[in-house]
Amino acid sequence: MRSSNPVFSRRGFSRDNGYAGFNAQQPQAGGPAVGTNPYATGAPQAEGGANPYATNPYAQQDTLGAPQQVRGNVMTIDDVVSRTAMTLGTVVVTAVLAWLLLPVDPANLGKSYGIAIGAGLIALVLSLVQSFKRKPSPALILAYAAFEGVFLGVISAAVSTYIADGVVPQAVLGTMSVFAGVLIAYKMRWIRVTRRFYGFVMAAAMGFVLLMAVNLLFAVFGGGDGLGFRSGGLGILFGVIGIILGACFLALDFKQVEDGITYGAPREESWMAAFGLTLTLVWIYMEFLRLLSILQGDD
Fold first, then answer.
1. How large is the angle between the packed helices 195-222 and 232-263, nearest 10 degrees?
2. pLDDT band at 85 (very low <50, low <70, confident <90, very high)
3. Which of 13, 196, 220, 249 is deepest in the core (most CB within 10 A)?
């Protein structure tokens, strides 16, 4: 299955540490196992048949056939931080501009929602296009961030104006708190990303998304809130589940970044890491916004 986070659609697991590096290859049926090195096919084997650099997806082979680690132009934590700041900064700036320049008022409420839905659909298409590309495209990722910001700005303004005043700062604070908490837990190794963890998160995410899709269909064709998964007690429960899933995706994001740096991923992969982190943080923010809106709307 493909992850609800498009960034993970090309990622997998390796035998040595559970979660794979980037673009890991799987052994072909009837063929030799080549580990996780995309360049390992036909590579010289060490004594005993083991590939000397099969566990590193970015190890290169020199002209003498010896494994050689790429040391120039590799991804660093500074690259990931700077690209993530650029991507999230684009989301924030366009969200603020949308809030200020596209005011949500009763006379233009339908127009505002139309702009938000249009921007959201464009952002979705751009994210899917990037997920199918073999290499990250900074222009595509920043364009996604811009349209995602427009969507978030209009929706946040509508929620703050008509449903729950002051809920947006609370949702932002909640998102930042989850990010900090998961980062600390991951650094302290309280969270370990393993094959089992990955499988559980993917299965839970698929079930969650399918339930929300069914609820949306019932809401569109049957009116009201569909099956009630986004209001009342069930809405609160599913809001909490959505936030927990977002926190799990953050752990996967952190592991992806760690593996990329460890294996010497190309610097351009830092854009993919920034893209994944942005997608996850947007997910968490939307779940917080929805949950807090339900809680304050019931007061």
1. 140
2. very high
3. 249
